[in-house]
Amino acid sequence: MAARTIFKKWKKFHGILYNHLTRSHSKGMTLTFLGTGVATGIVLYNVSSSKVIAAQTILNVSNFMAQPITSVDKLQKNPDDMKTKMELLILKIQADFCKQLESLEDDNSHFKVDRWARAEGGGGITCVLQNGTVFEKAGVNISVVSGLLPPGAIQQMRARGKQIDEGSLPFFAAGMVQFNGGLEVFKKWCDDYFYINHRGECRGVGGIFFDDLDIPSQNEAFLFVKSCAEAVIPSYIPLVKLHKNDGYGYAERQWQLLRRGRYVEFNLIYDRGTKFGLYTPGARYESILMSLPLNAKWEYMHEPNPNSEEAKLVEVLKNPKDWLNST
């Protein structure tokens, strides 16, 4: 799943939701989250039917941001199919999250909803809010696509140790650009994945990350993804409410823009979700690149002032800490 938001001020908890806050009134420090997001690791499995927990059979689609990608009739006829369960889950989480984010804005700031179809199979719903009072940019996207994985995507999965036969590979991917759920169990996986190799820096201070998760069973993996998705709103929204009116100055804003530059580097060079999308035939580039910030900055050989809060952050980014066991 996947979703990313770019906010007006940086207080972030990563690994699970990549957010870039600005213009509210905050000190531009970067945290990085535990429990905010459902994304970057796209949930992917072969097209095969699988019985799991029953999904609702009577759908009220008026609560979603747009009509489902799959026909309502097909969803209602296949309530136990994993593909149905995944699509309904991300539709609900997307709608709930967009409504919560919008509730923090003024009356003139709303999400632009763009439902799109993919000729090769499936489609998605892109929801973007820009230039708000609290959020400089916030995006919550979902995609439900199917077809044959291109060679580039198959090669990437093999490089991660997945045993995949030669030839084309049918796939179904239900994704949500947002952010992944919150547990210590995948903390090292998060540190290893969200790493800018050429900088020698992690993207954030911690969180969880998982990708291509297929154990212990498809059903249990789904329940885990569901619990992560449902952790986003109760873990993230209170942080925004608490800090959205904090004060900040020019120096904090410049630091925020520099950290956003690091996000751009990671997203375009290393992020597997971005690469998967760009490799997929019929990819919708506007949606794939939605998470990029409206503004970012690079300075030649920039170093934060010694003993500053920014310098302390960089030290942690270069030397990840085990927060649960540290004193």
TrEMBL record:
GO terms for cellular component: cytoplasm. Gene3D superfamilies: Coproporphyrinogen III oxidase, aerobic. Pfam families: Coprogen_oxidas (PF01218). Keywords: Oxidoreductase, Porphyrin biosynthesis. InterPro entries: Coprogen_oxidase_aer, Coprogen_oxidase_aer_sf, Coprogen_oxidase_CS. Pathway: Porphyrin-containing compound metabolism; protoporphyrin-IX biosynthesis; protoporphyrinogen-IX from coproporphyrinogen-III (O2 route): step 1/1. One of its GO terms (molecular function) is coproporphyrinogen oxidase activity. GO terms for biological process: protoporphyrinogen IX biosynthetic process. SUPFAM superfamilies: Coproporphyrinogen III oxidase. The keyword Oxidoreductase applies. PROSITE patterns: COPROGEN_OXIDASE. Its EC number is 1.3.3.3. Belongs to the aerobic coproporphyrinogen-III oxidase family. Homodimer. This is coproporphyrinogen oxidase.
